[in-house]
């Protein structure tokens, strides 16, 4: 795979265009700030009553609505929640974007699953940073960047790929690497990971491990440090050395525990469930569930946030922080 870097990129392409960043949340704020620092002309678009308007204005951006931004821009970057993309495109972008404009995405969901059927004259590209906006901004300010994936779904102008790379460079990813993918590959792999590996499984494992120790009479504080705090240490080790390197860096006792216990938790049944999760992602059942929850006012998301806040592990965290400890 060819990994693109700043030397492969013409930053002038994005600098020559007016960019509208739609949304000023996790990704929107970071991308707008990085673009501006890279010499790109940026307008931020938010709903009229958005609580984030003031923040974006106080950080020096002109703030307009998505419809107003669409009429003025050459490139609209859609950084609203994925489930809102269809409505924003239909009501605010499609009627106003000038012929030959481009829409950029940070995640492939709304194109992959047909929430948006873009006009044929538009360039449609993806630049997906592999991390949250906070890290995208922090690393950029530190002179580095986050790896991004990029893809083109529709190349009406013949220049969509070069434009996507230019955009990725302007948010800082050309400093570390921009990897080619497709909307489908980025979207499906990302949704699978969110459900089955990082966001879905690791927190469940931490809570289950904590519950097992506390149920057996261990002090909650000890259970907390064992099952939660050490996650950061192992993540750092894996990031720096890989999984084999991590194994070499830990004690023989820890390594033996890993080989004895890990395969009993992640079993053939776990792998079979992972395949089912991937199938549900690919055939659209996962996105149907997401859209149904959004339409009903997010009852499942709200209940899950409430359950996470109410879990006893959070009380231990507050207690440790109150005592001046670090977590
Ligand atoms: N979060 C991540 O780490 C991450 C990483 C990679 C890719 N992505 C992708 O980036 C995109 C944005 O995700 P996010 O997490 O940054 O979302 P977010 O934090 O929920 O922010 C969404 C923003 O969109 C705004 N918005 C909603 N409706 C709008 C409208 N009609 N016009 C203009 N703005 C509108 C919201 O406005 P209000 O402030 O008024 O609510 C908010 O500022 C998604 O496609 C996501 O998959 C996210």
Automatic annotation (TrEMBL):
PROSITE patterns: KARI_C, KARI_N
Cofactor: Mg(2+)
Binding annotation for Mg(2+) 2: 190, 226, 230
Active site: 107
Cofactor comment text: Binds 2 magnesium ions per subunit.
Single annotated GO MF: isomerase activity
Free-text function comment from the UniProt entry: Involved in the biosynthesis of branched-chain amino acids (BCAA). Catalyzes an alkyl-migration followed by a ketol-acid reduction of (S)-2-acetolactate (S2AL) to yield (R)-2,3-dihydroxy-isovalerate. In the isomerase reaction, S2AL is rearranged via a Mg-dependent methyl migration to produce 3-hydroxy-3-methyl-2-ketobutyrate (HMKB). In the reductase reaction, this 2-ketoacid undergoes a metal-dependent reduction by NADPH to yield (R)-2,3-dihydroxy-isovalerate.
Name listed for the protein in its UniProt record: Ketol-acid reductoisomerase (NADP(+))
Gene: ilvC
